[in-house]
Design brief:
Helices cover 89% and strands 0% of the residues. It has 113 residues and is mainly alpha-helical. Helix 1 runs parallel beside helix 4.
């Protein structure tokens, strides 16, 4: 059961990555970021209430929604940064996300987290 709970984050991430184009086309980048924030809030509320309900099914749903939110947020945020940044610094600004994600992974490996 634990493997199903853990893997739902990746399944939600796949679903979220596939929904990016649809969501941006339907809502636009700014409204898509706001909608993504609501998805993250709903996931957090479900995760908190799952403890009081003693329901692992709620944890599975919350992990799925967290994965969707993470994939949507990463992709949409990068596109939004590209839209609002000045032409002279656009490459540096959009590259910063990948750079800091890599630094975070490297530091996590270095400290053994």
């Amino acid at each position: 059961m634990w493997s199903a709970v853990v893997s739902m984050y990746a399944v939600g991430g796949l679903f979220g990555a596939l929904c990016v184009k649809f969501m941006i086309g339907l809502l636009g980048t700014k409204k898509a970021i706001i909608c993504n924030s609501f998805i993250a809030i709903i996931a957090a509320v479900i995760m908190v209430t799952s403890k009081y309900a003693s329901s692992f099914e709620m944890i599975i749903v919350a992990r799925f929604l967290q994965g969707v939110s993470a994939a949507l947020g990463t992709s949409i945020h990068l596109l939004y940064l590209g839209e609002i940044s000045p032409r002279e610094t656009r490459g540096m600004v959009t590259l910063s996300l990948g750079t800091f994600l890599s630094i975070g992974k490297l530091s996590g490996q270095f400290f053994g987290l």
